[in-house]
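Might I ask for a little of your time on a matter of protein folding? The record follows directly beneath this note:
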Amino acid sequence: MVARLSAFLKNAWAKEPVLVVSFIIRSLAVILPPLSPYTKYFIMINEVTPYDYPMPIHNDGNMPDVPSNCVLAYRGKIPSPSRSE
């Protein structure tokens, strides 16, 4: 099996080296990211990032369970940016 694979790779390299290099690069692009040490941090960041953000609701007056000042309540929850100068 190894002999056939090495013969195939030698033949492919002799005929189409550009294709062989492109397949090697593509294989590395698929294999290496899960082995990266940064993968752990990407997973941690994605777990704590919310999928849904609170959005102000357009109140047309026909929603008794939504407070009339919901936009102001939403804006009050946004932290103000601090300048570090």
